[in-house]
Amino acid sequence: MCGIIGFTGVIPAKDVIINGLEQLEYRGYDSAGVALLSDGDIILRKRTGKVAELKKLCEAEDMPATCGIGHTRWATHGGVTDTNAHPHRCGKVVLIHNGIIENYRELIVEYGLQDTIVSETDSEVVAALIDKFYEDDPYKAIKQVVKLLSGAFALCIMFQDIPGKIFAIRNVSPMVATSCEKGSVIASDLTALIAFSKEYFVVPEYHILTLSKDGIDVTDLKGKEVKPNILTVNWDITSAQKGGYPFFMLKEIYEQPDAIRNTVVPRISEGLPDFSEDGVDDAVFENCTNVMVVACGTAMHAGMVGKQLIERKLRIPVNVEIASEFRYKDPIIDEHTLTIVLSQSGETIDTLEALKLAKSKGSKVLSIVNVKGSTIARESDYVLYTHAGPEIAVASTKAYTVQVSAMYLITCKLGLVKNILSKKEAKEFITKLMNTPNVIEETLKNANNIKRIANHIKLAPDAFYIGRGLDYVMSLEAALKLKEISYVHAEAYAAGELKHGTIALITENVPVIALATQEDVYAKVISNIREVKARGAYVVLISMDEEVHDDKICDKHIRIPKLDAEFTAFATAVILQLIAYYTSEAKGLDVDKPRNLAKSVTVE
Predict the structure, then answer these.
(1) CA separation for the pair 322, 282 (Å, rounded)
(2) pLDDT of 190-227, one tens digit each?
(3) 160, 37 in Cβ contact below 8 A?
């Protein structure tokens, strides 16, 4: 949640910060603000709405300052107002904050800040405390305050009487930083840094950074200098741009074939899965008797695909848990459990805490993440990095399919190591997996047909997805996609459950998207489709049929290429993503930035 950026260097900071906020807007877009430090004064500008509103406000002003911080907000504490927007200033201190300070109300009372605070935010409390403790020593004040804070935070701080410097510290909430000949940059996300350097480092927790035009100093809370671990970005700035597409989401849908190739191909050796470059020991697969998958939202749905595959193919029990529920349970896991954690950002707070719980119970943790050096990656025993590149749209597409790809690789490796699959069977499986990018490219040729379907769905207040087995799992992700970007209320149901209550909701012209790609239950799904069609539903059928001869089955038919049932997830995912995308577009909505949502959930 929330985008933060700071820059100090030899060029004007205003444009750097606003350009950075535009790159970070997918992290929060309720309001935006900038603070510039120049000649012993702080210039503060902030506005509700999108970054474009802030940009308009600042365009006419001459702001030559070369040091500043900026923020794009996703509201947690306090409504969407100019006052609640960041940065927050108290006395000589101005700061931006990502995270949640859990004890901020107690701190207001304990330190008598009631008459100082003007906003409804927890963030302003931190600014007021630092200003209260500040006596010409920024390090002392920062150390005193962070010891008082409960919760997650990433802070960038400027002091009115310390020109050209930005101070930063974090706990849990992510920040990355880099320096170059133009100056030093810190941000909540790599997308704001990539224009300056491909080298960066993850800000270590509870370390104080001092950014100046000449570089970045990192010290621990005892004042000892620390050399950060420098990482390299494996994509360029064009990957975080639309490239001629109207929205990032559509671009990212079309990037899925390459994203899957980049994730799968480097992990294949002599036709078999090979995790040696990832440092994943075969022993982690040999010693496990069961698998626990922990994730949130779309990542959890990718884990559910993995569950279907592992249980059916290998007969190894798999549980899939919502991370936010898992961490408050007493999960039944031990040293024989392999816990697989999925997170695109590698910073999802509930997933991170669930990971720590699993490790505390003796389970080995294998994480599937897209961001190198992220907190979840660092905390895990083993990591499989997906190579999707930056995903800017809030609704996940390519990050989802590369997570699914990783689950397929793990399934094959697990079966091979445990002698459940022969080398011949494993090679056949991998050959089919490596063909999935071609299948997606073929499926994308159906885009225009799917667009026409969206024109019907956009008029509906409700939509339903039905399927059985793997198709039901895909329906769950499809319903989430439609809800989050088109605001059409959508639900997914196991098709066999229709008669147990759900069919009461089917009325004239209600859209029902029916998935029938699993051969062993195909006839059953067709029977369920006839039931909803008989009640007036507008039915879209997704199947491998060349054509549908009975016009009483469906109103529209979308065909996926003929392939093995266990590999239909990739083609189906693309169609379901496009249905959501085109429905949102047809309604004239901002596809990339759905209301109330942010890309990375780093607060509880």
Answers:
(1) 27
(2) 888 888 998 999 999 999 999 999 999 999 999 999 99
(3) yes
User: Contact, 494 vs 521, CB < 8 A?
Assistant: no
- The model's pTM is 0.85
Residue 277 has a CB neighbour count (10 Å cut-off) of 9
Strand partners, 272: 269
Determine the residue type at 220: D
What mean pLDDT comes out for the span 460-466? 92
- Give the count of alpha carbons within 13 A of 492, CB side only: 20
List all residues 6 or more positions away from 87 whose beta carbon is below 8 Å from its beta carbon: 33, 34, 35, 44, 46, 69, 70, 71, 94, 95, 96
- Contact between 151 and 101 (Cβ < 8 Å): yes
With CA atoms as reference, report the closest residue to 455 among 586, 566, 585. 586
Residue 47 · residue 54 · CB < 8 Å: yes
Q: Which of 258, 278, 268, 273 is nearest to 384 (CA)?
A: 278
Compute the distance between CA of residue 78 and CA of residue 68 in angstroms, rounded to an integer: 24
- Reference 556, options 545, 566, 542, 567; nearest CA is 542
What order of strands is seen across the sheet that includes strand 489-494?
489-494, 462-467, 511-516, 538-543, 556-559
Residues 6+ apart with CB under 8 A from 328: none
* 558 close to 546: Cβ distance less than 8 angstroms: no
272-273 and 268-269 as β-strands: parallel, antiparallel, unpaired?
antiparallel
Residue 87, preceding bond cis, omega within 30 degrees?
yes
Pull the structure tokens for residue 287.
């010693």
From CA 593, how far away is CA 171, in angstroms rounded? 27
Angstrom distance (rounded) from CA 116 to CA 119: 9
Model confidence pLDDT, tens digit, residues 37-81: 988 899 999 999 888 889 888 887 888 899 999 999 878 888 899
487, 589 contact by CB (below 8 A): yes
Closest residue by Cα to residue 232 from 265, 264, 258, 197: 197
Closest CA to 285 of 95, 154, 416: 416
Of 436-440, 454-458, 536-540, give the range with the top mean pLDDT: 436-440
Tokens of 194: 């990539």
- What span, in angstroms and rounded, lies between the C-alpha atoms of 186 and 17? 10
Token pair for 562: 């003929």
Report whether 191 contacts 217 (CB < 8 A). no
Which residues are the active-site residues?
Answer: 2, 599
Q: Residues for the chain: how many in total? A: 604
For 269, phi then psi, to 5°, come to: -130, 120
Asked if 226 and 234 count as a contact pair (C-beta separation under 8 A), the reply is: no
Q: Which two tokens stand for residue 519?
A: 């051969």
Gyration radius from the chain CA atoms: 25
- DSSP secondary structure of 198-216: SEEEEPPTTEEEEEETTEE
Q: What is the mean pLDDT of residues 533-549?
A: 87
Residue of 473, 469, 443 whose CA lies nearest to 579: 443
d(CA 194, CA 232): 10
Mind listing the pLDDT tens digit for each residue in 380-400?
Answer: 999 999 999 888 888 999 999
Q: Which residues, at least 6 apart from 108, have a Cβ–Cβ distance to it below 8 Å? A: 114, 117, 125
Phi, psi of 219 (to 5 degrees): -135, 150
